[in-house]
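REVIEWER CHECKLIST
Item 1: Sequence provided? yes
Item 2: Single chain? yes
Item 3: Sequence as submitted:
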Amino acid sequence: MSIKFSSDPMEYQLCSLLGQCTTDIAVVFLGRYTTNGCLVAMKKYNMEKISRTETELIQDEIILMRQLSHSNLLPCLASFVSGHDVVAISPLMGYGSCHDLILRHFNTGLPELLIAIILRDILQALNYMHQKGMIHRAVRASHILVGSDGARLSGLRYACCVRQNSNNYSRRVHSFPLTTQPNLNWLSPELLQQNLLGYNEKSDVYSLGITCCELANGVVPFADTPTTLMLTEKVRGMAPQLLDCTTYVIYDDTGQPNEDTDCRMNDQMREYSLRKFSEPFHDLNELCLMCDPHERPTPAQLLTHAFFKQNRRNTQPLYELLLPAVPIAEENVPEIQDDLESILAEDKMSALDLCSVNWDFDR
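Item 4: Structure as written out by the authors:
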């Protein structure tokens, strides 16, 4: 965006509560930049309720969001400290996260064509980050935000730099993310193993494969698996699949239910058994989830995969693929007086003075 956004909290008006982060460290509000009337997302972190480690991660995330510049990465338009809150201003992504879309509208997963559009955007973001020597380490549906112009990747507080050795040819990381619990299901085997070999950018490709299953199936892989068993299965090479009629078989050749199939088949199970994903989609997912990182393609290589040919043939606009979801836009902004939580939040914001705490958002 070419508009310069102010760091003065008085120039932002809260309109409505959008939601809370999955890790409960922040609340996201729909806001309006009063200088030009532009709708924005206002992410508020209450620094009294989070640990020192999380505080450092939030500061690093805001700095990184301002340093990196790519159309498929969520930028930080402005940031400021107000009382005990740190507020980060970002563009409004009208459809919310892919996690929200699944919960509210696509319980059995997103359409394949929509997934292809989203994955292309996220691969472009990852390719950019990797070229900058960064590993994201938290690719998941809740960190993929969708707007009218496509998808953007967020969740940069988990990102890290890739260190190069003295010969400048083998880049490996051995550090473990400071906060891993929210992202364990998406992390790669080599990252979880924490051995002397370390890991590199290919760990993001594995996480993308897990996200493929999450977007396609409507459920998080390993969601009901004990943590220790999940780690063991990943290291052994066990990988989740896209659920369709080729991988989720509930009837045998005679048309009778399989013995291991619950006779109380619900609508979700029936949907899995009737649909069919394309062979290129299955192939792309399998490539991403290869246990050996050397066998996984890079984001740049994946962008040339046959799966994305359907994007070039598609003539259907994005908003049609996202129906019945409707984006937040100017014409359907909730009235402030009809949202009690927004009123209270707005009063609190206007009553607070800027705190004397010094945060360096420009380093």
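Item 5: Key structural point noted by reviewer: The chain is about 30% helix and 15% strand.
Item 6: Recommendation: ____
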